[in-house]
Amino acid sequence: MADGSRHPRWSLQDIPFDCVRKSAIVHEEDWFYLLAGASFVETLSDLYANNLAGYYAGNEAACQWLQNQWEHEEVQHGRALRAYVLTVWPDFDWDTAYQRFVDAYAPLCQTEQLGPTPALEMAARCVVETGTASFYTMIQHASPEPILRQLAAHIRADEVHHYKYFFRFFREYQASEAVSRWRVLRSLWQRVTEADMEDSFLAIRCAYELRNPGQEFTAAEFRAFRKRMAVWIRRHYPFEMAVKMLIKPIALPPTLQRMLLPILTHGARRAIT
Question: Global pTM?
Answer without folding.
Answer: 0.92
